[in-house]
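Protocol step 4 of 5: obtain the predicted structure for the target chain.
Materials: sequence only (see below). No template structures provided, no constraints applied. The aim of this step is simply to have a reference model before the mutagenesis design in step 5. Sequence pasted as it appears in the construct record:
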Amino acid sequence: MGVGSLENVPATRESLESLFYGSLINTFSVLDESEWTQITALRANSGAEDYHALLLTSLSTSPSSIAWSDETMAQMVQEEASYIIEKYWAPGEVLIGILDHSFLGLATA
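Step 4 output (structure tokens):
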């Protein structure tokens, strides 16, 4: 899969779902509300370079506690998963999301 920290992951539906949703959960666990607001605003405005810089900085530091309730986290994961799937399958769309290829390694670390 191109991620050094993943060595022997079986190529099953369950493994892929676990990696996908687990990566989203890991990513949201290190973002606070301010960071997420900035990230989604940059993504919506196609500011890919600024978006990537902010995301990299945000993923490189951890908050003292998770900023989201379980319910909010579940909703965020559902919404981001829908966004990624929709953009991935839409013709001509460019996927700029928290699991684009440049950040997959950080999300699964």
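Step 4 remarks: The mean pLDDT is 76. The first helix runs from residue 13 to 29.
Proceed to step 5.
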